[in-house]
Fold these 2 entries.
Entry 1:
Amino acid sequence: MNSHLENNIKPVIYVENLTKIFGKFTAVNSISFEVNKGEIFGFLGANGAGKTTAMKMLCGLLKPTSGRGFVAGFDISKEPERVKASIGYMSQRFSLYDDLRVWENFRLFGGIYGLKEREISETTERMLHELGFTQERNTMVKSLPAGWKQKLAFSVAIIHNPGIVFLDEPTGGVDPKARRQFWELIYGAAERGITIFVTTHYMDEAEYCSRISIMKDGTIDALDTPANLKLKYGVKSMDEVFYQLASSKG
Amino acid sequence: MFRFLLEKEFKQIVRNRFLPKLILVYPVVMMVLMPWAANLDVKDIRLCVVDNDNSSYSRALTQKASGSEYFSEAIYKESFSEAISTIERGESDIILEIPLDFEKDLVNGVNRELSISSNAVDGMRGSIAASYLASVVNEFSAELMESKIVNRGSSSVVSSAMPASSAMPSSIEIVSLSKFNPSMDYKLFMVPGLIVIIITIIGGFLPALNIVSEKEAGTIEQINVTPVRKITFIFSKLIPYWVIGFIILTNTLILAKVLYGIVPVGSIFEFYILSFLFLIVVSGLGLVISNNSRTMQQAMFVMFFFMLVMILMSGLFTPVSSMPVWAQVINSINPMKYFTEIMRMVFLKGSGLADLYKHIFIMFGFAGAFSLWAVLSYRKNS
Amino acid sequence: MRQFYIFVRKEFLHIFRDGRSILILLLMPVVQIILFGFALTNEVKNVKVAIMDPSRDAATTMITERLTAGEYFSPYMMVSTEKDSDALLKRGEVSLILSYSERFRERLMHTGSARLGLTADGTDPNMASSIILYASSIIRSAELEISGKIFNSGGVAIPNVRLLYNPQMKSSYNFVPGVMGLILMLICAMMTSISIVREKETGTMEVLLVSPVRPIFLILSKAVPYFVLSMVNLTTILFLSVFLLGVPVTGSLFWLVIVSLVFIFVSLSMGLLISSIASTQVAAMLISGLVLMMPVMLLSGMIYPISNMPDILQVIAQFIPAKWYIEAVRKLMIQGLPLNSVLTELSVLLVMAAIYLTASLRSFKDRLQ
């Protein structure tokens, strides 16, 4: 399957009035934004602000209640399976198969995305080498420490070289050193032209993004580069930006 | 991409700590234990005799009962109340009370009633035991009559060794015969049913726990975000259970032969083909339940519930024809009912495809319906 | 004590949040009672008969009529050749073939003897013998009318049969105690073990263990909701069996409840024991589902009489708590015997409760250290 369906003129993610309602609860309330190719787009917000719901809609896991969204040129409500073929996804639980070995996880997901046997083994070797995991290729995933699983999950998510990769709170539960290393991986992927869409609630990580949006109660309260946001709110760190937004209007 | 998914399922099953042991050991344990435990033979009925007459007639009658294949050596009690307490303590199953002056009255041509009291807490057992004892008494009377006719009133003791040819002196000769299981062996009845149970439990429970366990582990989300087709994913889940089913079928077939000398009278080919159809049905049902459950506990419970109802109504334990009409109507959508019939027909009656075409047709319908349902009930997005 | 109460409430919330499971837990005994009470029976009823009658005279017509008049047998088809009737039997469309000899009445009248064949489907040996016994006795009584030859010689023994405790031969009398044993075991042992192992698996157990609550209370708080649930089910079963099935509680209700309570304690402690052995939910399910339930169904005497089993299985059966419970319930409920007749069962259950409880508490402590 070819994964480079996005063209350079249109934004790779385009969202207009996207809304998701569960019963009486509006999780995402008419959000609109665009993400351009090669960007690292930070999606911030407190727990329960609607980040994960919005991201799941973009990945084709949830159907929007109303509004439109295009990812890699495909309509997320009408062609969710084509969206899925063009993206990578990594959940906050680093959902690899615990009872499979490292190389077997690569092989499985490579196979699912339609890679050839040779492509899979070549990509696996290259990625293991880049991660410095060549020793661990035969280790069961369940016996790896969390920081390693996280890097592995990221590599597995981009094994098919997708145009966009969605990362749902990818750095939860790992130590600061591992978080730093993980962001190096993200930068590496972005340099190769992969668009990164990442949710987080670590404000220091927000500084690493090209642009960020801050969600609160299902709506986007702010959207700009980190530098512009700090300027706008007259503060020195993203922490303070976030705090100001959180304490403004109820 | 199918190959990769299939590979993954097999690896996961083989690496599990319990499943391979369960798949190999469980059928063996069931096949070794169950036919011995699941025995509804009414044999070795424990007879308690209250002999108020203590005459040669009464002794001959008791001896005749004790000597028959259905009853074990009788125990004797002085009074009926003592005899009842042996039943209450679970020491005997049936009481034969012979009245005073039994022999005297019979010799004088007076009919006498004998009381037979059977423990009928288990109704069927109780009544079969009672009718066995009643038929012993009838035979005794018949022999007595014949000897009277022969000896013209002489009071010679009826020999218990006398051949029990015709029951009463009658002119219709009833020739009774049980086909397909002439030795009336309960194991022959139970073993095919047992294979049905084993296939249902392994082939149904394991898939029921499968997808829901991926939900609990979170890995299903990672699959749902890939472009994998629903049908591909579901069949990669189903096929390993079909393979496991085949291994179990073969094991049970060998065990039936080795342990009990039971082999299908019908063809082995039919056995496999029809069992395969049934495997598709139960594994499909398992996945449907798994797809619709949030936790393993829930899946387990729903499966347990369906399985219990299906097994109980399948005719494995009690005949379907004895059920009331409403139950038979419900039963027409119970795949296990058909499969139980099929297995008994193939194993005991040697029914061929010509006899089974209706069943085959129905099983194909079920297999198609459940596979389709399994695919449709899997949701990649909500 | 207040903490204990809070924990118990938490467990109840867990159970009630999963509506489907609770529904099944409450529905299971009802469905079982209905099935066992109304659908599952070994009675000879609606047995389909193929009739091969080459003579078609007054005698055969009358015998056929008599045979199929009641609810036991229903005529399915008249056949003319043995091949046809055998095919019907083989396909399972009929369970009995009734075949008369040729010139049946003529032979009966003149030679004084005529042949009649009863061929039953022996797949189920018990059904087959019941069918033949029933059919023979109907034919015998028809015969007396035909020949008008009633015993006038006298001097025969006439059996007078009484079926004790269950004169109408209801299968529910036998099954109700079994259903009680099965359901109580299922809820107490299976549910308790799964719910504890679940907390182990998700890691919340550690959180609870560092709380100031004593571990023993923690475990007890897990058991309380299932205890309550079992009491609800016990009540349902007794209520349904008395009012729906008409199975009376002939003995003392008080002692029936006491014995049930003891059995519930045994089951709960078995559940605790399983939860300390198993580390995953699947393992807990498999242990309680297959290792526990199968023996209960098979070796407890619930369906299959223990006296029929080989010695080794009879010995194993003695170690199954449900065996003692079901026996005690049969005596107390169906046979209406006084307490002193179940003293053995009661004391065995008490000893088992003590052993399992000690074992599970000890293994729980070991795990903590």
Entry 2:
Amino acid sequence: MSPQVAEPRAPEELPAAAVHPVALPETVPLTPELLISQLLRGGVLLSLSLVTCGMVMTFFRHPDYFSSPDALQRLTSPDSAPHRLSDVFEGVMAVRGQSFVMAGLLVMITVPVLRVALSLSIFRAQRDRAYAAITTGVLALLLLAFLLGGVE
Amino acid sequence: MAAVLDATPFNFVAIVLLVSMGAGLLGSLLGLGGGLILIPVLTLVLKVDIRYAVGASIVSVIATSSGAAAAYVRDGLANLRVAMFLELATVAGAVTGAMLAGVVSGRALYFLFGAVMAYSALAMLRKLREDGSPRVEPPPDMLADRLALHGSYYDASTEQLVAYRVHRPLAGLGLMYVAGTVSGLLGIGSGALKVPAMDLAMGLPIKVSTATSNFMIGVTAAASAGIYFARGDIDPFIAGPVCVGVTVGAFTGSRYLTKLKSGSLRMLFVAVLLWVSFEMLAKGVRG
């Protein structure tokens, strides 16, 4: 407000000379909105590719799944779904289809956490202290949730 | 139901895929995660164990949110600052809800949920009648000013840039804590509670509320999904096709949302809220 009163010419020259040529080419492709949008899309695509590959692999390795109703009972009955990261990792190493699906689902669960982490670095780059603090709080709560889940 | 149980694994996966696509489409149009539609279909029609239905639903909720939000954020419909501020409350709520899940009885939950949803639907219906008049500028709010929560968006149906101001951020925070708790307890995104909290309490336009709700749901659901995974409630054979189907549906829905007039969107939303709340109340009463 006050610079406009004190120096009427300066603000008019600054945007034209300094801001436009430098800022426009760099900020347009890198708006926070676009970055976050790309992260969300990339994460979902990676997750879906893993899940789809895993589903195709499952049916490839078990041709009886096309004909046998008994297999469905086993697959959807309440027994042990993999619930430790090491189980999923071992399954992926053994090229088990369902482990690939599970890895894809874990990527999906990680996407929002990465989005919050990306927001944190964006707010810090913008020197927005209040929002950097808010975002750190959200990230800390998310990690607390995962820790509590691991304890149960 | 016997017919479905006799199905081969391949048929089962195909049916789950189709149902999930429908739920994802509807969910993204309404700002819901799709879980409210999915869980009844998976349990009542496909006879999936409720634990696995909830586990699949919570991952699909993240998928819907992220898939649709990618488009909303790019189009500038979602308010990122409002979202981040309110996520403090939804994530804290999701942690509370997941911890309470073992203590509260199922019937009490259904009943509480039905009552809250019916209230939200009626409150939106009341707002719909007032909507003939132009939007009222909310009174100035110091905290909203300091947090720079105000924003603007481009409305494709009227081809205008709409600026809006936000008020009562603390009321929104309180309501979001409740929404997060419900999400953690029932394994749904609870967009039905998030949209009214922004739309009615904080004065955000309905389209911004819907888009921001979709954006926030993923973070809330991720907090509970970690706990469901650790419990072994996420079965890849069910959650896999649900996740793929819902994302494809949500992507289709998010492409057409800005073309719907706010009035028709809200009417559709109210109808779905009332229907679901009736189902929930009935289940709470019958047990």
